Amino acid sequence: MPAPSLFSVAVIGLLAGLAARWIVGRRQSPFASLTVGVLGAMLGTAVGEMLGLPVATLPALALASVAGAAAVLSLTVLIWRR
Known about the structure:
Layout (H helix, E strand, L loop, with lengths): L5 H19 L5 H21 L7 H22 L3
Protein name: GlsB/YeaQ/YmgE family stress response membrane protein
Keywords: Membrane, Transmembrane, Transmembrane helix
């Protein structure tokens, strides 16, 4: 199966950022959520591909994106604790 395109990772990442914001329970601006989502989606798909997981399907891509976005958001909460 081919790897997901950058465009599909970005679009899914936008939605994953909103989901990660809800999962982590962090209040932040919508722009920050979208940024975290895109970064998390790229991280999640990269880690999934390195582990040999099939991230080319839409459900797997969405799950990897939400997991990556939640991880990135959790790290930002730990680093910039207020």
